[in-house]
Amino acid sequence: MRLVLLGAPGAGKGTQAQRMQVRHGVPQVSTGDLLREAVAAGTPLGRAAKVVMDAGQLVADDIMLGIIRERLARPDAARGFILDGFPRTIAQADGLAGQLVDLGVSLDAVVLLDIDPEILLRRMAGRRSCRRCGRVFHVETNPPRPGDRCTDGGAHDLFQRPDDNEETVRQRLAVYALRTQPLIEYYAKKGMLRRIDANGTLDEVDARLEAVLQQR
Ligand code: AMP
Question: Pick from 36, 176, 189, 205: CA 20 to 30 A from residue 112's CA?
Fold first, then answer.
């Protein structure tokens, strides 16, 4: 399966991608996670990306395309992948199309997670990630369950992403509207776009996602 999950920040792309990779046995490829790893490692890319991410802006297209080329060439992506947070601009979508031609593969679908803007803000305010395993939770709607241990057997070490504060969230939503929303039309014109209602519980959204993937 080769899939793109499209949607505003906070729409649930990461959470759904994490659940889908378990069900379908193909890796989630989150460019946000790849950038956060570079930030944590303190690489030159990470240092430059942190400034851009903290401002709620987008990292340059050529850098993102380089990261994706390297990621999709890894063996675990040979049987498929779930792209989460990429592409975010038309230039990235064009670049991805070229890379897929080079790899001799094609996307099965692009799924838009459609969500009420009010819910987006609430989701991002309550979002927490585990510092060790990277799983994403929500303080109200999806907290770690009793007995749900992190990879090392201990409790999850939860933190709030620095770009989930209210001011940066507003900036990220504005950038989404300007730079990423045009991809809806882009993929619709190619006949690849499927939409699902991403309001509701995790299980409800999961079920809609699986149903839409059955429509070949
Ligand atoms: P995310 O975890 O997908 O919300 O991404 C967090 C931040 O990483 C974004 O606000 C951007 O600054 C940066 N980022 C992630 N993916 C991309 C991308 N495809 N293009 C440009 N910047 C990105």
Answer: 36
